[in-house]
Write a structure and sequence with these properties.
This is Methyltransferase domain-containing protein. The protein is α/β, with parallel strands linked by helices. It is built from 11 helices and 7 strands.
Length: about 240
């Protein structure tokens, strides 16, 4: 059992994939649909999804008639069928001015943000749209172990203001910003309903107590708004 717990902690996103249906971010498919709406994704839209994972958002874009291609450091085994290519956000294997929309959900906080935004701007045609959703931190974030922070995408999280400033510096004009705090809380609650933290972490002894304390600190930060989740649509100038 402890081996299984270690594996779950080492790859928390794969673990979440077994607990949640659809995209692994607050709001799930419904939030992705709304983001695609705001980015004007429709018939023949040339869309590149950075960090496409299992390809749920690609399917939603294609259902609208978009010409959608995914990019991921570790493409799924059915990459050929899903038109997914291997690559990272800071060196997109795409020519200049090639796409109408770049979609990046819960991805940019894991990258060198200025480099990733510069690449997004390069591959977008003039007037193209960048549709981003990501974790944000306001004020002092929780003091938690580095491993926990990395697992929860908090290591590279920025404030909403810092994210907006980075977009501006990269040559984007923000069209709209939406807050997804309620969806973040709902996602947290769904995981809590399906996982007995006390029983599982109790098997890890003192280490489990440290992880439990870190999780409680993160949950408190979510409740009081220090940790949030936002989506932004910005236009390439």
């Amino acid at each position: 059992m402890k081996g299984l717990l270690d594996a779950a902690l080492a790859d928390p996103w794969r673990t979440l994939d077994t607990l949640l249906d659809g995209p692994l971010h607050p709001g799930g498919r419904a939030a992705t649909e709304r983001l695609l709406d705001r980015a004007d994704v429709g018939t023949d839209t040339r869309l590149l999804e950075v960090g496409c994972g299992a390809g749920d958002a690609l399917s939603l874009a294609r259902d609208r008639g978009a010409d959608a291609v995914g990019l991921d450091p570790d493409p799924a085994s059915d990459a050929a069928a899903s038109r997914t290519i291997r690559g990272g956000a800071t060196a997109l294997p795409v020519r200049d001015d090639a796409v109408d929309v770049v979609l990046a959900e819960c991805v940019l906080c894991l990258t060198d943000l200025p480099a990733a935004l510069a690449e997004c701007r390069r591959v977008l045609r003039p007037g193209g749209r960048l549709a981003v959703s990501d974790v944000v931190i306001e004020g002092d974030g929780p003091a938690i172990p580095d491993r926990v922070a990395a697992a929860l995408c908090l290591t590279g999280a920025r404030s909403r203001g810092d994210l907006t400033a980075a977009l501006d510096e990269a040559g984007f004009a923000v069209r709209a910003t939406h807050d997804h705090h309620d969806e973040l809380v709902a996602m947290r609650d769904r995981v809590q309903e399906r996982v007995d933290y006390d029983a599982l972490l109790g098997l890890l002894g003192e280490r489990g107590e440290r992880i439990r304390t870190a999780v409680e600190d993160v949950e408190a930060a979510v409740d009081d708004g220090r940790i949030g989740y936002v989506s932004v649509v910005a236009r390439a100038e």
